[in-house]
Amino acid sequence: MYISLYRRYRPQKFSEMVGQSAAVSVLREALKEGHLGHAYLFSGPRGCGKTSAARLVAKGLNCQNLGSDGEPCGECEACNAIAQGEHLDVIEIDGASNRGINEIRDLKSHVNLKPLIAPYKVYIIDEVHMLTEAAFNALLKTLEEPPANVVFLLATTEPHKVPVTIRSRCQHIPFHRISMADMVNRVAYVCATENIQADMEAVWEISRQADGALRDALSLTEQAVSLGKGNLTLESVKALTGGSNRTELEKWVINLRLDPNESNSALHAMLGRGISVERLTESLFAVFRDLWVFSLWGEKGMEALEISEEEGKFLREETPHWNSEKLRSACLFCNSLLPRARYGMRMEVFSGLIMLELLNIIKGENDALSSVPEVNKPQERILSSETVQPRPDRLVRQTEPAANDHKPVSARAAYIPPVQTTEAASFEELPDGNYAKLLSKLGNRGIAIGAALLNCGIQIEDSEWKLDTDVHSPSLTYLMVPQNRKLLSKALEELWGTVDPAVKENAAAMPENLPVENRVGEDSSNIREKAQKGSLISDTDRIIKLLGAEVLYVKDANGDNETDDFGSID
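-> structure tokens emitted (570 positions)
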């Protein structure tokens, strides 16, 4: 009977394990010293050697000729039986299909029985995260205090799904994704042992397609050799994977820059061979990522890339034709396509987007992807064109005084340059001191009213002031709310001696018990007490409706939520 390559070349000794030196060292040392724990949890991606390591631990416990370094001999009767899966005291359980409480109860009923022919009884539970909650609960006590001659070895690809009560009773040993270099060496070794003529570029492509799983790499090798009629060639790998191998994509990138028409035809040919849109997007991202890294750090950056000599040659020759910003934009674009590619995308839509955006990036016409939005500091609030309307050049404007006007300069001029940022608690760093004084005088409502003033502005004539806008907007409506206008008028009067002719009319129209939120110098506890006495909320709603104002924020009547929301001011 024919045995697959990944089964024939499953590690039979710890020395044959690939890319897991840390985990192997821990296990060999424990076997050597005789201090192996009663339960282990092996976690890691698929095809990295978890189950193989569990079988090697079982060999080390029951080997009749264990080496001084903790290495099983691999030749005794116990080692051969374990390798063939026929040992009576090494029980392998598939957690995906034996996941119920009844299976675990059956395990518990046999766990106290002595081993039949070996010193230790070993339970290997693969995909242990698939067990049900009831099964985990049933296993808990047995796993914590098993008999002295019983060892549990649990393997999983998703350790976060294993309950913490189980993990805490096991020694957790993580297994890692196998590196590209280790996988290339192993695939080349298998090909040499099997007398298979292998093209190194094909070996590299298979290792890249396997994505860190050696079992997948050997399975792909076996299929590609069948397509290549006994040889491992790049063409057979290309036919197996549907195209888009690294060499073909590198040529495509070169043609994209030199001959877009040829590049478009090649893209349709790749998609026509059956390559998935998701796989092609990921492969394109990897090419642009490598070019970007080399453009920034040169040969030192290349040391961190898992590439062959031919791929390194491509980077050296092609990178000078790109700048780092264009490569960065190409990477961001490919990344933005990945979520849509995973859910499915028509070939015509995908090819159109790829050609359109990448050609724009090459021409330097894609500004949206060439920069990443800056992350604002938590203590800052940005007042930009995205949150407010275009603001006037002057926030507070004063007409020229008469010749006999002898008012102080501070009361006559208050020109405010455009403001980009302001802090929530302090206004000292604003470019104009007079505007900073005004915002500070407004108290807790300084930010909200100041944001509205960015759109309206103030005009001072002699000893009176008025809002310098005739355009109806949410900002104007917000400032026309009587309590806000009265607060602003009071601050302007105290700072520059100006009065608002309309403030008296508005004050007369307002009920005496209308709550003025955040009055300067008024205790907030008094406001809460007034809000709880009766008809304050209804009076406020009635007046706002009479004024035709929009509700810009919501405030709890009990004063529990005093945070101003001025993000709705356009």
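Residues 246-363 form a domain with the Zinc Finger, Delta Prime; domain 3 fold (CATH 1.20.272.10).
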